[in-house]
Amino acid sequence: MRMILEGYYRLLKILITVLMAGLIVPVSMQILSRYTGVIPRYIWTEEIARFCFVWIIMIGAMIAVRDGTHFDVDVLPHSANPRIEFASRLFVNLAILAMALSFLWWGQDFFVLGSRQQSEIFGLPMWMIYVAWPLAGATWALFIIERIYDDIRGSGPTEGDMHGAG
């Protein structure tokens, strides 16, 4: 299972790189057409940029959960006692898991809503954006369960802050 998650993680890193390149092209075209007049105005660039931007945010959040670099707020005090630190990490990870499951649950409704809509310019199905929410929830859940498993086994946080969950 670890190898599958690692392969998925690497795929996400490749996708975010491709999407960043995909975002740079239409945004650059918008800037050039708006301020220089070198190229004509293309209305489709805004829509493509929006699609890329949404996916970059969601995939970036997926990667951050796996890396343990997603932010968390230090509500609980740090302790020198390893059991208390474990309980603190577990609390943070379970809170992230609850959020992930809510994205997965209610993201399905969001996806269904998008399956009945099309984008204005290209006529692309809006589910292509809305599927990012349940997919992110499922991915966060997998990655946070992996992190909880590692904590229980004693591997502890791999990266990120003291809580290891971010």
From TrEMBL:
Keywords: Cell inner membrane, Cell membrane, Membrane, Transmembrane, Transmembrane helix, Transport
GO biological process: C4-dicarboxylate transport
Cellular component GO terms held in the UniProt record: plasma membrane
An example Gene Ontology molecular-function term: transmembrane transporter activity
Domain of life where this protein originates: Bacteria
Cellular compartment(s): Cell inner membrane
Domain Tripartite ATP-independent periplasmic transporters DctQ component residues, every copy: 24-153
Transmembrane segments: 12-33, 48-65, 86-107, 127-145
Main location: membrane
Listed InterPro entries: DctQ, TRAP_DctQ
Residues spanning the signal sequence: none
UniProt topology in membrane: Multi-pass membrane protein
PANTHER family referenced in this protein's UniProt entry, alphabetically: 2,3-DIKETO-L-GULONATE TRAP TRANSPORTER SMALL PERMEASE PROTEIN YIAM
Similarity comment: Belongs to the TRAP transporter small permease family.
Quaternary assembly: The complex comprises the extracytoplasmic solute receptor protein and the two transmembrane proteins.
Stated role: Part of the tripartite ATP-independent periplasmic (TRAP) transport system.
Protein name: TRAP transporter small permease protein
Source organism: Silicimonas algicola
